[in-house]
Amino acid sequence: MCEVTTALPSESEDGRPVIVAVCGKGGAGKTSVSAAVVRALLQDPAHRVLAIDADPAAGLASALGVEVTRTVDDVRSDLIRQVESGSGGDTKEMLSKLDYQVFEAISERGNLAFLAIGRPEKEGCYCQVNDLLRDIIATLAESFDAVVIDGEAGVEQINRRVMERVTHLLAVSDASARGITVAKAIRDVAQSAVRYERAGLVLNRIRGEEELSKLPIPEELECLGWLPEDEAVRKAGLEGGCLLDLPEGGFVDAVSGCLSRFGIHTATPAVAPEPTS
To answer: What gap in Å lies between CA 113 and CA 128, rounded to an integer?
Structure first.
């Protein structure tokens, strides 16, 4: 049985921006949940939200209706090519321009800013460049009220390529045994790979209480609630529609309810379906 928890205050322990990292098995609906989290946080027009697509599949851009022209890995690859060829001048000077180049890769739409990490073109260890880029992203995040990271299933890459600290780690699973196993593994790995304040589980595409009651939810995973199958979400996925335009109710309200139980309160809090006792 999935025990739904009560909400905590909507801020991180040290007063910094709320940083939500969303991870889960491929196909579990992780990107749709990430987009819905962004949508919920944008309900307060006074809040600035930074969405970071850290999944090389880059689905979050489409889900948010954002066009990506440059990624962080484009910046990284350009710098490495210049360093290796000696065509960019002084290395220290090139490194000093990284923050400006990352800023140039940001797309903005109202109170939403979007940054895609991309897929590395060059493998190998370029530790100084990687560390600088991660520091720049972490510093950039401080300028926002909330940050949502759509990550891969492997949470350790968030530490390596985005930032070493998040406030909320959100694992997404569907009703499959594999999805729940991956969600548990994410939480287990995160204990050593990522610094976080709170971790929780959201169950996606659940058909009701009867299906929910049959799922083997590990006790160590804090279950925030479940999200129903939603035709509007399915249609947006098939047609490449923007999930920011989803209507209220159903999936959208359920996500807001889960966030509230996670200690993240939106401008229009809603209630997610709760298991019956």
So the answer is: 26
For 146-190, the pLDDT digits (tens) are: 999 999 766 777 888 888 899 999 999 999 999 999 998 888 888
* Domain ranges (residues) in the chain: 18-261
Nearest in space to 202 (alpha carbons), one of 17, 16, 6, 23: 23
Which two tokens mark 63? 């889900």
Please tell me the pTM assigned to this model: 0.88
CATH 3.40.50.300 fits 18-261, yes or no: yes
Asked if 149 and 188 touch (Cβ cutoff 8 Å), the reply is no
Q: Which of 68, 34, 78 minimizes the C-alpha distance to 204?
A: 34
Helices (H), the chain: 30-41, 59-63, 72-85, 91-96, 98-104, 127-141, 156-161, 177-193, 209-213, 231-239, 250-261
- Residue 261 three-state SS: helix
- Find the helix packing angle between 250-261 and 231-239, rounded to 10°: 100
Who's near 60: CB < 8 A, 6+ residues apart?
31, 34, 35, 51, 53, 66, 114, 116, 150
Express each pLDDT in 203-235 by its tens digit.
Answer: 999 988 889 888 988 887 889 999 998 999 999
Q: How far apart are CA 84 and CA 63, in angstroms?
A: 36
Gap between the terminal Cα atoms of the chain: 9
Helix (H, G, I), strand (E, B) or coil at 27: coil
